[in-house]
Amino acid sequence: MNAQYVNSLHAVKVQALVKPTRSISKLLLEEDRLERFALSTSGLYLDLSRTPVNLEDWSRLLALARSADLERKRDAMFQGQVMNPTEGRRVWHSLLRASAPPSHEVNGRQEISSQASAAFKEVQETLLRMRAFCEKFHQEGKITDIVHVGIGGSYLGPELIYQALRKQPQSVAKNEALQVHFVANVDPYAWDRLAARLNPATTLVILASKSWTTPETTLNSQTLRQWFEKSGLSSEEISKHWVAVTAKPELAQKTGVHPEQIFPFADWVGGRFSVWSAIGLPIMLACGTEAFDDLLEGARAMDEHFQEAPLERNAPVMMAMLCLWHQLHLGSQSEAVIPYAQRLARLPAFLQQLQMESNGKRVDLEGQPIQLPSAPVVWGEPGTDSQHSFFQALHHSPQAQAIDFVLVREHQSDPRSLFLQANALAQIEALSLGHPSDDPHRHYPGNRPCLVIVLEKLNAKCLGALLALYEHKTAALGWILNINSFDQFGVELGKVIAKQFEPLLQNTDLAMPNSMNRSTQSLVQKLRV
Fold first, then answer.
1. Percentages helix, strand, coil for the chain, rounded to the nearest 5?
2. 15-68: per-residue pLDDT in tens?
3. Which residue of 183, 286, 441, 478 has the smallest Cβ count within 10 Å?
4. Are the C-beta atoms of residues 375 and 10 closer than 8 Å to each other?
5. Mean pLDDT throughout 159-177?
């Protein structure tokens, strides 16, 4: 870790502790405040002006980002260099939506490596196969329901995008009656409730698992296969209803999936960054190939902005720096995401995984304990629903929390849309500026940071840009913190320990291990049937 980075980080930490609290209402009076902290890119408008950051704070944050070598690391990621050192992997999800293989400068000339050329070719071949499969799927028109089985990044992105785009007139699939259902939880109730509404003869199953060994996906797939078998369909007939999306196509083929119905992706595609890959197959099937292409185009536009814009006008970098500042200055370990669009109801859940799985780390790249908060708890619900639940705490709690408002430009011909937008603006105003009162119960202190993102439309292009914005924000924050945002070892330990409990719960005659503490033994006994 270089001395310049250490000194810059120390300067930011010291500056963040400076209290008197910076007044957002006063900062908004600065003549060039909006010009400095608002920008339009890729179909999005961002107003980042409503934060307790003054010009001195901003200068120190920019110095920190530069001393963290953020620009070089960004370029290395796009070029396909190994950016996940603990697993020795590239981080190349940008290639999934690229229009050409990335080049790099050699002796003053731009060259494309054989590795980049080969990887780009593989991505394009999979996209062509996906499009051909979709065309055949809709020509046959036999399927009424798709069951997408996955967990984490294998389903959160597809579910979010499907809900957001499923009835878009400009991106509707040929089969308008087609429904996609997402099965992630292994709780039997989740599948049993859905199965009662489905016909095996008109249902397609997509199994999405990067490793093809994900326990939850494996268990759910076994349940679905039994459901097909009980319906009387032959093995050959069942195989026509079975599609695999995985980085281990050879394992999928061994379990009986026909090679023509296996859609691979590379091991450098991280689960939470994978919706642009074959993991997005249900989106293409349900919303159309044009919509999927538009999704990639929107993300690609944000990629170009992230690569080309200077740090002080770079939307993902600006959001990353503000995220760090809010945690340090406010002492907040929380970041609310409030989409004022019901179709974006799953956005907070998607961002929970993206940001918390990526940056929820305890050590830096050198393996040393980090001294900074790394990943705020991401949470939220759509407005205006949430205004009648947790907004009380956002307004009046002594601990201020940062809030991302996601708005969509809508025609105001419908009074409900007008009401929705008016409430979004009102909450942004009230939370950031407050409202004084002599009655302490009715006093609103304000000074709550509000980052506002407005989508030009809730279409595939703008949605792709929005998700890529948060992807790059996450990576930029990780580089600023000197951590690896691209591994996730924190999810593994529980899986290992669970295997020890399964036989104890299944066989009530098994004795408890002597090494197990009494509290755990008691819980096992309570759960035994």
1. 55, 15, 35
2. 998 877 789 999 999 999 999 999 999 999 999 999 999 999 999 999 999 999
3. 441
4. no
5. 72
What tokens appear for 198 in the block?
């489905």
Model confidence pLDDT, tens digit, residues 346-375: 999 999 999 999 999 999 999 999 988 889
DSSP bridge pairs for 203: 145
CA–CA dist 287, 173 (Å, integer)? 5
Confidence (pTM): 0.95
35, 121, 495, 502: the active-site residue: 495
Side by side, the strands of the sheet bearing 450-455 are: 38-41, 44-50, 450-455, 402-408, 334-339, 377-379
DSSP string, 67-123: HTTHHHHHHHHHHT-EEETTTTEE--GGGGG-SS---EEETTEEE--HHHHHHHHHH
Instruction: Return the structure tokens found at 87.
Output: 């697993």
In one-letter notation, the amino acid at residue 510 is L
DSSP state of 352: I
Q: Of all residues in the chain, what percent carry a pLDDT higher than 90? A: 89
Q: For residue 160, what are the contacts with CB-CB under 8 A and spacing of at least 6?
A: 344, 346, 347, 349, 350
Cβ atoms of residues 475 and 430 within 8 Å: no
CA–CA gap between residue 171 and residue 461 (Å, rounded) = 11
How far is residue 347's CA from residue 380's CA, in Å, rounded to a whole number? Answer: 9
Give phi and psi for 207, each to the nearest 5.
-95, 120
Catalytic-role residue among 19, 230, 388, 411: 388
Q: Let me know if 461 is a catalytic residue.
A: no
Q: How many CA atoms lie within 13 A of 261 on its CB side?
A: 18
**270-290 mean pLDDT:** 97
Q: Are strands 145-149 and 179-183 parallel, antiparallel or unpaired?
A: parallel
Pull the structure tokens for residue 437: 């009162």
Task: Tell how far CA 446 is from the center of its chain.
Answer: 29
**CA-to-CA distance for 14 and 482, rounded, in angstroms?**
18
Sequence-ordered list of residues with C-beta below 8 angstroms from that of 305, at least 6 positions apart, any chain: 41, 42, 314, 315
Instruction: Respond yes or no: is residue 495 known to be catalytic.
Output: yes
Selecting among 335, 357, 381, 471, the annotated active-site residue is: 357
- Decide if 148 is catalytic: no
How many whole angstroms separate alpha carbon 14 and alpha carbon 329? 10
- Round the CA-based radius of gyration of the chain to a whole number and report it: 25
